[in-house]
């Protein structure tokens, strides 16, 4: 059984002021080209098909085109679940009708997890579709147990459904959440998170050891491609960088092959985005130098502008360089030395210089000479006392 693991599509996403529909359409074409040239048996979408519960019409239209191409043109079964960004009630509409065409969409949590069985040359493979689940869902589904945490809710769900696994069959779990194999050495896991994900500390963290009986776990929710503490438990990550904090992540989809004994081979497939998300730093003169102030790149760029004061007409000049610039952060030269330069530069400053840097970073204005004299006097008194 060979299937493609996707998640966190977030169709309809805005990056600052920019709609990413063109970038997402470009990614969809790459996925379809891959599947055309490298046949798979199924496609998994592990939640967050849309970016919000009521997606814009053009995002719904794009999703319709993408799913239609997968199911009707490529004749591939698609197994999808709702994530925390999806409107589960709306996503559930028509699910019963879709099944007849090969689109299996599980949007509403149920005490009995939906099981879809596909066949390959070695026999049946059961796919378990578990949409995003909260303790509030757990209280509804398990009123007698009345779970209060994500861990308790998922434990009850597994206790209810693991007895349904057929002995000798291969099983794949599709789930959306904050999962990791925990251990005494790493009690909160080792997961890479970013700004565009919705997590509340570790309150929603679930020990993925609950899912040990499954031969592969296709997870969604985290935007970086990574293991969830096990080779068989994977996040494929989002197709694109949806925040500046993701600029260094290598985005991929996962091609998973499951043999007759349930051993899986996972191959990341990297697509080039239409536009990268990245940040640049420098003075206005340094940024303008390569092209004399004209077009540099069509990427989505966040600019750290090094300056002592206000740069006249900065936004227009930056837009000439980067038409899709995301924002400008003004950084003083001293902050550049102490923050961007790291701890080594900070250690070179004396107490007065360090205090000045701290004050200007936190207050956004220079320290007055009178205040600086008071700082020097306090530093000298401390030196005499030590």
Provide structural commentary.
The protein has helices spanning 21-37, 57-73, 88-91, 95-98, 135-141, 150-161, 284-288, 314-321, 333-340, 343-347, 351-363, 369-385, and strands at residues 2-6, 14-15, 18-19, 42-46, 78-81, 103-106, 114-120, 123-130, 170-176, 178-180, 205-207, 216-220, 226-230, 233-235, 252-258, 264-270, 277-282, 300-306, 324-331. Helix 5 (135-141) crosses helix 6. It is globular and about 80 Å long. It folds into two domains: 2-270, Metallo-dependent phosphatases (Purple Acid Phosphatase, chain A, domain 2), CATH 3.60.21.10; 277-385, no CATH class. It is an alpha/beta fold and 386 residues long. The model is unreliable at 339-346 (pLDDT under 50). Strands 6-5-4-1-15-16 form a six-stranded mixed beta sheet. It has a six-stranded mixed beta sheet with strand order 7-8-9-12-14-13, with no helix packed on it. It has a three-stranded parallel beta sheet with strand order 17-18-19. It is built from twelve helices and 19 strands. Strand 15 and strand 16 form a beta hairpin.
CA-CA gap between termini: 72 Å
Q: Mind summarizing the main beta sheet?
A: 6 strands, mixed
What's the tally of helices? 12
The amount of helix comes to: 25-40%
CATH class of the largest domain: Alpha Beta
What is the typical, i.e. mean, pLDDT?
Answer: 89
CATH-defined topology of the largest domain: Purple Acid Phosphatase, chain A, domain 2
Low-confidence stretches: 339-346
Radius of gyration: 26 Å
Strand order of the largest sheet: 6-5-4-1-15-16
Q: State the domain count.
A: 2
In CATH, what is the homologous superfamily of the largest domain? Metallo-dependent phosphatases
The CATH architecture of the largest domain can be named as 4-Layer Sandwich
Structural class, from helix and strand content? Answer: alpha/beta
Which percent range describes the beta-strand content?
25-35%
